[in-house]
Amino acid sequence: MSTDAKNSIAQMEKIVSLCKRRGFIYQSSEIYGGCGGVWDYGPLGAELKRNLRSAWWNTMTREREDVLGLDASILMNPAIWKASGHVDTFCDPMSDCLLTNARFRADQIPPTNGTIYKFLGAVPNAANNNLAINYGLTEGPILRWMGPKTLEHQWTDEELFENFKVGVLEQQLSAEDYVRKVDEAATMKALRTWYSSIYRFEFSVLLPPGKPEQSAIELARKFYQNRGIEFPCPIRSSDNPEWVEGTRAFNPENGAQLTVPRPFNLMLKTYLGPTATEADVTYLRPETAQAIFAQFKNVFDSSRVKVPFGIGQIGKAFRNEVTPKNFTFRSREFEQMELEFFIKPDEAVEIISGEVAAWSEGADLSEPKPNWGWQMWHRYWVDQRTKFYEGIGLGDVLEYYWQTPADLAHYARACVDILCEFPFGTEELEGIAARGDFDLSQHQKHSTKSLEVFDEELKTAAAKLTPEQKEAHIQKRLAAEAAKTKGEPMPEADVRAWFERLFKGNYVPHVIEPSAGLDRMALAVLAKAFVEEEKADVNGKVETRTILRLHPRIAPVKVGVFPLLKNKPELVAKAREVYALLKKHMNCFYDETAAIGRRYARQDEVGTPFGVTIDFETCGEKGPELLDTVTLRHRDSGEQERVKISDLLGKLLPLVS
Ligand code: ATP
Asked: Which pTM was predicted?
C-alpha cells in the first residue's frame, strides 16, 4: 500500500474516531454489533446536519421567489417506481467472492494485473490416498497428471491406468522402480476411487507479480475445504498460468475468483398493509425526486406559479447498496436534498423570445433571462450550487466531472458531477442533470393524467407565427431527432402532434435537477475542517491538538460560554446571563469545568468558532470601562478581543447565520 493510501486511511480513522468520541456520528445498533451501511447522528452531528439542511433549504427555496418546497412521504404507489424506470433498471452489477462470499460492486473493483491460476476441481484426502502413499507422489505431479482431459473424458480403466503410468514415470519414478513397486490391480482400484471422487468445481486465483504459485494452491485448497472436502488436493486445469491486465474478475483483497457480475436492484422492498402478499409490495424511496414529479401538477395548480419554477425537497432515501463504504459516504439510508427546476422547452423559448441564448465561457449567469434554454439554466444551477458550497467552506476542494455523451442516459442532455476531495479520494457530492421532459412524460404516460402546463405567453407568441415559420420550427426539430445518436428518434407524426399542442401554449416542462446528498455533505465538511496542530503546553510538552475548522454557518455549536473560574459566584452568574442571552438566537455551550485553555481546546475539537469568557474585568474589577465586557475568542485566528455584552449578539449573529 502506498504511503498516500496509508495516510488517507489513517486520516479517515481519526475522523471516524473523533465523530464517535465527540458525538457526531455513531454506528447504528452498535450494542448489537451494528447494522451495515446505516449510521446515527449524535447530538453534535444532528446539529451539523440541521445547519446544512437549513442552509440548503434557505438558499434553494426561502431566499428565492421561483422555488417552492415539498415534504412528501417515503412510501408511494409502486407504479411510480415502474414509471420512473427504477423497478427495471435501478441496478448495480454485483459480484461475490467465491472464497469468502464478500460482495462487491463489480464496476467499482479496481482493475488489476496478475497471473491467473485455474483449478478445475479437487481430489479429497490427497495426503492419505493410496496413490500418494504408494508412489510417494507429491502434489506437484498429481496436479500435473490430473490434467484437464481427465475431467472431460470418460476414461476406461485401461486408458486411466496408461495415462497415470506415463504421468508417474515422467514425473516420479524410474522405469525400474516402477516395475518393482507397482501392483497394477491395487493401483487401478485406487485410481478409479480417486478419479470418481474428484470434486468438479472450477475456481481461479489471481496472483500479483512475484507471488509464488503455492499461495494460489493454498487459496484453492481453502476454497475446496469450504465446500466440505477434507484434505483437498486442487487440480490445475493447465500447466501454464495466464497473465492478464486490467481484470475486475477477482477479489482485490485476496485474489480469489468472483462470480460473474449480475444486476442487483438497489431498492428496498417492503409490504404495505396487513396481508403482506406480492400485491402489497412497495419500496422505500431510493430518491426524493420522483415524489416531486408525481406532485408536480398539484404544486403547480395550488401555487399560482409560472414556468420556470422549481420544487425542492429534503428527505430520507434508501438504497440497498452492494458495498456501503467510506463511513457515511455510501450508506443504505441517507438524506437527499433535491431540486427539480422546471423550464420551458427550448422551442417555446425561441417562439417567445425569438432566440435561445447560447452558453459561452464567461456568460453572465447572475440573473436568469427570458431567453435562457436548458443549457443556460443548467450552467446557472452549476454556478448557484458552486456558490452554495463556497458559502459552507468547501469552495476550494471542488472539482467537476462533465459526463461524456457515452456516460449520459438517452434522455439526458448534460450532467455534471460536483466532486469533492475526501481523504479516500475525489468523489461525487452532487449531480446536476438536464433531464429534458423524460420524468414528467413518463409519469404522464404511466398515470394517463396530463402533466402539461398551459402557457399564455407562448400561445400569444405562437399565434403571430406564419405557417412557414411554424413549419421551420418543425423541420428544425425533425433534423435534431434524425441526428440523435442515443434513443429512438421521435416519429414525424409525433413531432407534428407535439408542435400542434405547443403552438396552442401546451407543453410538458423540461427539468434541471441539482441533487445533493446531505450525509456526504456532512462528511465533506468534517473532512475538510479536520486539522491537527502541534502545540507546546506551559511546560514545553508538545501536544497534538485536533481542531475542526467548520464554517461558522454550519458549526453545531456557535459559541462556548465560559466563566473564568467556577468557584466565583459573580463570574458564574454573569456567564449564565450571557449564555441565556445568546442561546435564544444560536446554539451555545456553557462550560465551567477545567482550566480555560482546556475548555477552549474542547470546543476547538468540535468546531465551535467563538468563545466568550467572563472574567473579573467583566464584573468591573479593573474599572468601569471594562465593566460588562467579555473576551471574545476567535477559533481560527486565535485572536481575542474585548466586546461589550450588549454588542455581542449584533457582532455574532451575522457571522453564524
Ligand atoms: P453514486 O454514483 O455515488 O452512487 P449516484 O450518482 O447514484 O451516486 P444520485 O442518484 O445522483 O447518486 O443521487 C444524488 C446524490 O445523493 C449523490 O450525489 C450523493 O450525494 C447522494 N447519494 C447517493 N447515493 C448515496 C448513498 N448510498 N449514500 C449517501 N449519499 C448518497
From this structure: 0.85
